[in-house]
Amino acid sequence: MKTSIQEIDGKTRVTVQGELDTISSAAFQKEITPLMEKEGVNVELNLGALEYISSKALRVIVSFQQAVVANHGSICITEVSDPVREVLDMTGLSKSFLKLS
Predict the structure, then answer these.
(1) Total domains, the chain
(2) CATH number of residue 55's parent domain
(3) Containing domain of residue 10, as a range?
(4) 77: which strand partners?
(5) How many C-beta atoms lie closer than 10 Å to residue 10's C-beta?
(6) pLDDT digits over 12-39, tens only?
């Protein structure tokens, strides 16, 4: 798993590549914790190069979304790979928690 966080045009782009499994989700959560605590952050989550996502990683993303919204920010997925989209659709997250653009 590789994560990059960039500030672009007033938005924070978080790009995740590879596999986000149970082990790597802890490292991912550590990387995004500052964003979870930031007031009014606008996050674009790019999962276009993510090949696999575990249930633990899904919980991290849901917690991320909840923290960002609680701090008056916004979060949306700007790109998503087919395998990850399938998981998001199966779990209902593509409709109920995160807005796919």
Answers:
(1) 1
(2) 3.30.750.24
(3) 2-100
(4) 45, 100
(5) 6
(6) 999 999 999 999 999 999 999 999 999 9
